[in-house]
Structures are given as C-alpha cells and as structure tokens.
Amino acid sequence: MTTLVTGATGFLGNHVARQLVAAGHSVRLLVRGSSNLASLDGLNAERVTGDLQDMSSLDRAMKGVRRVFHVAADYRLWTQNPDEIYESNVAGTRRLLEVAGQCGVERVVYTSTVATMAVPSHGSALPNEKTHATLGQMIGHYKRSKFLAELEAIKAAGAGIPVVIVNPTTPVGPGDWKPTPTGRIIVDFLNGKMPAYVDTGLNLVPVEDCAAGHLLAAEKGHIGERYILGARNMTLKEILGALASITGRSAPRVRLPHAVALAAGYADEFFSRLTGREPQIPVEGVKMSRHRMFVESDKAHRELGYQPGAVDPALERAVRWYVDHGYIRSRTGTKRVTHAQAA
Q1: Strand partners, 165
Q2: Are 319 and 186 in contact (CB under 8 A)?
Q3: Which CATH architecture has domain 2-176+204-231+294-309?
Q4: Taking CA 204 as the corner, what is the angle to CA 311 and CA 147, rounded to the nearest 5 degrees?
Q5: What whole-number distance in Å separates Cα of residue 299 and Cα of residue 282?
Q6: Distance between CA 218 and CA 248 in Å, rounded?
Q7: Contact 240/194 with Cβ under 8 angstroms?
Q8: Which among 204, 162, 210, 167 is positioned nearest to 185, based on CA atoms?
Q9: Residue 86 burial (CB < 10 Å; 0-12/13-18/19+)?
Q10: Which phi and psi (to 5°) does residue 119 adopt?
Q11: CA-based angle 62:64:303, to the nearest 5?
C-alpha cells in the first residue's frame, strides 16, 4: 500500500519522505506545480502535482493510499497577505482530512507545532501535551493558523478519522533549503551578521530524529493524541555558544533588549512593505522571542519509544551542509568544519 507525504520539498517533510523510502515504503508525494523540486533529487518516490486548495488533486493523490503524513505548512513569520497562511494551514488541512476520511485512509499523521502548547506557564513545570493554550496566546498569523489547524485535526479524530498529531519543536540539521527561521539564525551567525542576541530560548531537536518520530507516531500513536517531538531546551545564547565551538567563530556577547529589537523589527517591516522584500527582522519573531519555548517530550518517549539524539552534532551537520551548499559567503571562521569534511 502507498503512503502519501505532503510538504516533502520542505525541511522536515523531506526527511520524513526519505526515511519512509529507506524503510521500504511505497511513497507518493503531493507537490505543487510551482515548487522547487531540487530537494527531491535522488528520492525514489511517485510525484503527484496538486495543491491543498484543490479537492480534485487531493482525491487523485489519495487513491490507494493507506497512510498520510501531512507535513506541509506555510511557515512564514511575515507576509503582505496573511490570508494565504490561513488558507494553506487551516483550510488546506481541513480539505486533506476530509478527503482522507472519504478515501478510508488507515492513519493520518498531522504535523502541528509545539507552539500550540509552549506558552508561558506558572510554576516550575514545563508545558507538555496536557497544556491547553488558547488562541489568544498565539503570537502572529503562523502560530494562530497552526493552532486552528490543530483544532481541525482534533475535530476530525473525534469524527472517526484516524488522526495522530505530532508537535515538533525546532528541527536542526542538514537539508534546510529555504532556510527556516531557525536556519537563518545559523546562516546569519556563520556569515557574521549577528552582532547581538536577545534573551530567548527554544527546544532544539535533530531533524532526522524528529522525522523518525513521525514514523513512530504512525505505528504506535493513539488516535486524537498529541506528541511533542523535541530534545533539548537551549537559550539562544547557548545555541550561539555551541555554534561558536563548532566553527571557531566568536559568539556575540551583547544582549539586545527586546524593546530595541522590536523597534528595529517595526522599522525593517516598514521598509519591507515599501520595497516588497522580506524583512530580516520580522516583528512576529521578535514578539515570540519574549517567551522561552521550553517544553518536555516525555510522552513521546513513553508511548512511542521516541529517543532523540544529541543536538550539538545536529548543529554541526547543519553547519557543514550550509557550507557545502554555498550559504556562507566566506569560509573564514569555519576551518574546523571544513577540516572535518576533508578527513
């Protein structure tokens, strides 16, 4: 039987698709006609051109499919037309789940985000799958759209569609073509474009292990349940320190007050709207950084057998990949990485 993957041209979806193929699955990919397919090179999988907005293309893609991994998402922290994000993430998810139900799919793994539960909490306990956030706690259109899309998945599970929800934290590693907002932090650091940092934190996870968690969820996950796929809570200062150790570059020592970063973000977005370019400092990203998105992922370990690896080697794999693929203007300061490649 065939397994359908959406979002395989993206960072995490590409790793999910490749692990499925490596495990011997017959894989079909739903790809948009406008997508850059370079990341699919060497991937032995059937391709079906379609779109989450087109029900007929979803129906074609779902024929004969046993399992679906819905990884596709519009992951932007800034856009001139926020409706596009909701159309893709909310309405698109609703359509896909509806077609999956009509086609009798045996299991749908829906990729949500840790943002739907990683909200400020009182006391010492970290947020987890029992944390029930509200739409009002979601900062920005991306988080709000994913919160609403997750509600669609929960509703579908309640209606009898076999949906399991996974909530990745922040994947890092090779293959981040776009790159993602977190990947941009790494690239900016490597290019010497990060003179300061803000006091924030993320839960990082090796992208390969996060993808493996998706496959475990398909096998062992309980319908309607959520599973955080994370690894290590790190402040941004700790992340930059790890990158400094990997590359030999100096980590920034100046901590930028959030108020200054927010002012810079508003100014950057103002000029972005005039020029049409994407801002380098999205206001939504700055607002998100006021809260450390630390969580715990013990449930996935208990119920799925999820065992993520160490984060520092994943950061090193990411650095090597960016260097190899021309994202770094100069290799100065990355000698230890290139020496390791030559060894």
Answers
A1: 110, 226
A2: yes
A3: 3-Layer(aba) Sandwich (3.40)
A4: 160
A5: 33
A6: 41
A7: yes
A8: 204
A9: middle
A10: -115, 160
A11: 80
What is the torsional sign of CA 76, 82, 88, 90?
positive
Strand partners, 170: 204
Residue 27: enclosing H or E segment and its boundaries?
Answer: strand 26-31
3-state SS assignment for residue 28: strand
Contact 96, 33 (CB under 8 A): no
Q: Is the pTM of this model over 0.85?
A: yes
* Alpha-carbon gap, residue 211 to 69, rounded angstroms: 11
The dihedrals phi and psi of 92, each to the nearest 5 degrees, come to: -65, -40
CA 186 from chain center: how many Å? 15
169 within 8 A of 228, measured Cβ to Cβ: yes
pLDDT in tens, 243-300: 999 999 999 887 666 565 555 554 655 556 666 666 666 656 555 556 678 999 899 9
Q: Residue 268's pLDDT is what?
A: 55
Helix (H, G, I), strand (E, B) or coil at 171: strand
Query: How far apart are the C-alpha atoms of 31 and 9, rounded to whole Å?
Result: 8
The reported pLDDT for the residue numbered 134 is 93
| Domain boundary assignment for the chain | 2-176+204-231+294-309
Closest of 115, 116, 317 to residue 207, by C-alpha: 317
Closest CA to 140 of 269, 32, 296: 269
Q: Hey, what are 55's tokens?
A: 């029900």
Q: How far apart are CA 311 and CA 205, in angstroms?
A: 6
